[in-house]
Amino acid sequence: MGFQARKTVRKSNFRFSTHSNVNYATAIAQQLNLGPRQVEQTIALLESGATVPFIARYRKEATGALNEVQIAAIRDLLARLKEVDRRRDTIIESIAQQGKLTDELRRTLEAAATLTELEDLYLPYRPKRKTRASVAAARGLTPLADLLLTQAAGNVEQWAAPFVNPDGEVPDIQSALDGARDIIAERVSENPQARNRVRNIYNRTAHLTSRVVKGKEEEAGKYESWFEWDEPARRAPSHRVLAMLRGADEGLLRVHARPVTDDEVLQVLERQFVRGTTQAAAQVAEAVRDAYKRLIAPSIENELLGSLKEHADREAIRVFADNLRQLLLAPPLGQKRVLAIDPGFRTGCKVVCLDAQGALLHNETIYPFTSVREERAAVAKLEALAEAFHIEAIAIGNGTAGRETEEVVQRCRFKQKLIAVMVSEAGASVYSASDVARREFPDYDVTVRGAVSIGRRLMDPLSELVKIDPKSIGVGQYQHDVNQTLLAQSLADVVESCVNSVGVELNTASRELLSYVSGIGPALADSIVAHRNSHGAFGSRQELLKVKGLGARAFEQCAGFLRVRGSANPLDRSAVHPERYSLVAAIAASLGTDVPSLMANAELRKQIDIARFVSADCGLPTLQDIMRELDKPGLDPRAKFEVFEFDKNVSRIEDLREGMVLPGIVTNITAFGAFVDVGVHQDGLVHVSQMANRRVADPAEVVHLHQHVQVKVLSVDLRRHRISLTMKL
Question: Which domains are present in the chain?
Answer without folding.
Answer: 21-125 (1.10.10.650), 132-322 (1.10.3500.10), 338-459 (3.30.420.140), 653-726 (2.40.50.140)
